[in-house]
UniProtKB/TrEMBL annotation:
GO terms for biological process: regulation of DNA-templated transcription; transcription elongation by RNA polymerase II. SUPFAM superfamilies: HCP-like, TPR-like. TPR repeats lie at residues 180-213, 547-580. It comes from the Eukaryota. Pfam families: TPR_12 (PF13424), TPR_2 (PF07719), TPR_8 (PF13181). This is RNA polymerase II-associated protein. PROSITE patterns: TPR. Residues 988-998 have a biased composition (Basic and acidic residues). GO terms for cellular component: Cdc73/Paf1 complex. It comes from Roridomyces roridus.
Amino acid sequence: MDGASHPSGRTIDIELGGQEIITIDLDTLDTVDELLDLLSDPQCKAKAWVWTVVATEFWRRGSLEAAEKVATAAIPVFTAQENTTALGPIYSLLANIKIAHASKAPKVILNDARQDIMRDTLTKGDYYKEAATFLNSGASVGYNEHLAFLTRGIHQLATRAMADAMASFNGVLEEKPTNLIALMGKGRIQYAQRNYTEALKTFRRVLELNPRCLPDPRIGIGLCLWALGHREKAKAAWQRSLVVNPDEWPAQLLLGLEALNASKNETQSEAERTKSYTSGTKMVERAFKTNQKSAAAANALCELFLRKGSYDRALKLAERTIQFADTLTVLTEGYIRAGRVSHAEGSLPYATKYYSSATEGQPKHVIGAIGLAQMQMQNDEMAAAIHTLDRLLQAPNPQTSVEATVMLASLRAYPRPGVSSSDVAQERAKARDLFDRVVKVIEVEDARANGHGPSRVSRSIGNDVDMHAEIARLWQGENLDRVGRSLKEALRLSEAAGQGQADPRLLNNLGVLKQFDGRFGEAREMYEAALTCVTTLTSGDAEGMSTSILYNLARVYEDEGRDDLAKDAYEKLLLRHPEYVDAKVRQAHMLTSLNRHNEAHDLLKQALAAQGSNLNVRAYYTYFLIQANMSKVAKEFVYATLKDHDKHDVYSLCASGWIMYHQSRESRDTSTKGTDERKRGFQRSTEFYEKALQLDPCCAFAAQGLAIVTAEDALGTLGGALAPAPGAAAGGASGAVSAAEEMQKRLKNAREALDVFAKVRESLSDGSVYFNMGHCYYACDEFDRAIESYETASTRFYKGQNVPVLLCLCRSWYAKATKDQSFPAMSTALRYAQMALHIQSNDKAVMYNIAMIQQKSVEMLFGLPTNKRTLKDLKRAIEHGNNAQKLFASLAADKAAAVPYSRDLADQRRRYGDIMLRKSEEHLATQKQVEADIQAKMDSARQKRQEERDRLEALEREKMEALKKDAEKLAEERRVAREQALEWTREVRMESDEEKERKPKKARKQKADGSGDEAEPPKKKRRGKLKRGGGGGEQEDGADGEAEPAAIFSDEDDAERPKKRVTKKRVIRDDDDDEAAAGPRKKQFKSKEMLSDTDDEMP
């Protein structure tokens, strides 16, 4: 016999040479070499199934190499026997062996692996290729049994050919619906395709067919339940799998991962989370020990060692994960953990390589992108880091990551070399938008209705003081309100983190904001609190902080007008840091405000000697020279700044433009050479402003300077002050610029300048902007708007103490008064001139203007008709005129060497005033007479109106008396009517009582008469409801015609009643009037207890 299995046990009998039978006990197999010698003997005629059984037994015992050796040896034996058709099961077995080898082989080989080195190991792909070769060999010999289809399906599933694998498994299931291997393969494919419901049904079918099946279908059932959201049921399935198969690793791994995830649940107590973490760690370690080739177990265990700081073991596990990962997700996790280990060890090139590999496989992986961006930042590749995070957060498939958003916002806010100013502004705007998005996400999570609140990550980011400080820096110069909110939040978090001890830098910045807002008291308190906090610090930055804070405190003392305290603070600063030139500059400024210019000048020279290249010091010294009317020195100094220090200093360029413009404008040289020099000065001023704008397009001062040049036509004829070009003079009258054309040009220039000033006003909050806008409105003869602009500049910025603004207000009101012929407007102009004189009491030009306004007010009122002026205003104007005479006389007699007016003109004005005031008595008499006549007419008209009012009041009283009498008469009539009605009611009630006494007798008589008439057909009786005094019960007639006497409604009664009832008279009462007024009254009927025939006879 060729071979048979022994009925008594797991044995195989093999016939050798036809005479000898050798029994192979599968429970006690000999060595593989001995068995191969036996099976390969030419006299041994063992069939293919014997070879497969022996090889399978070695595989079952864990010796996959011996099984492969047996199966491989069978091929030449059957080939030599020319029985290749019998090799089909052998080829399928070899394919399965190769697939089994592949399950324990790495997917890829890391050639630069530092811990898990597998350079000489075959990969899964190599084994799958060999398995495919054996499957093809089996197909070539015509082997088409179920085993071949199952093996091919397993191979296709392993190589991710899901559609082909599904077709293979379905082909088997069509003939054998209970084939467990095909069902398991089909379930895995359904799960991979995320068809969790159908996969769950398939795994449950396997469990029904064989509860002891391996691989355990409970693992698949749990995975499907977990994906469907049934976490507790999934956990129960895995726990049951662990009970049934305690030595299998999948259930241990899944339960360990579930426990580790549960340890991150912040709703649990600390003890519960610790317990979950401990049990999860133990299960993952046990799973990895059971199967050290599992990428998932290695990945989970790597995280544990990474947290412990065991970087060597963590790196080995990460490399194991990378090399054995079957899915892209696990592979990406392996690269990320390898990158994290390398990053922690300081191996930045390796970390960059691993993070890059992770993002190549999954570009939208948040941790991978963040890790790569960190490496790019370490390598100073900021643009590349921004690109990496942008790709993560932008479409397609944008990821929602608070960490990545904050990181990208910080990178965009960070200034980078080689980026233009416009790009920097765009980057800052994008950074602000990103931070706003982060804040909104945190606010939404804070307002969650489920009570969980924000996640741990969002909470840690929301509590980041530096983030809020960075937001404040981004909004600085754009929105001080947002700056304040961010700094307040940062201060709150700082105090919470430091147990009430705030960061002094935040207090200092908040104090600066309060100071900018004009809340000097609050700012001072902030600075003082910051100084107190600095004293508790021991770091090296404490001295620098205290210096800045003390300087700010001195500045707020200045703003509060506490100059003594400010002076003491500056002196303390200079004692500690003599090189602190900012304090010296502020001291010089305080001395300048006290008109101690020489001392201020000395301090500024000291500051320049100490730090001659300090552009801030040089800028203030330029300002000091200009304010001291040392324009020539200021010009030389600012030119030296541009030449020797920084030719691109925007402040120096603007100052140069202003100096050139001012000198050209104030030049009084009317010669041809002088005119040309003025024009060249204006041209150079324009060039300075344009260069400043090229360097800083947002420089409001340069833009304002150009607007002033445009408004005053400085490049043209300066409003007619400069002579026209030589070509314009030729050609007679046609070549000359007419006054109308000059006016149109002036208006056009003013309008263009106004557009520029309006834009400057949006970025520069300074009184000079409104001051210049007022000039433009004045040039356009829009005096009301000019006054509005001047008022804004004076009240908001200068507190009514700026003399030029007050004089411009005086000029505008004077022009408005002259145009409207308004004495109140002229009085307002005089008031502003007097305010200016109060500030500069020795300014003779202002005194001349006051005298001129007072004289003009008299001239204007004398020229007005009597009906447009009042005696009071006329007297007041004459008083002003007399005062003007005194002022003109004193100004004309002034013996000073130089005066800002013409003495001759002042004397002429005095003489003109004398002539004009001679008519004052005549005007006063005329005005008195006119106002007396007007008053007489008004008195007469008032008397007539009073008489008419008295007459109408008398008529009204007579009318009221008549109405009162009518009302009394009507009331008497109603009283009489009510008494009559009461009398009639009593009479009716008495008659009704008499009828009640007669009614029962009459009713009985009628009944007796009716019963005797037998020939008369019976009358139909009707039912009726009768309302009684004691209740509302119903009374019904009986069948024999008898009824209660008081409840009868019979046909006889109807016949006896007359057809028309006599209408009763209605007595009108007071309340009836009210009812009538309220609306139409519905007809109402009230029934008595008894109805009688006498009712019809009531009057």
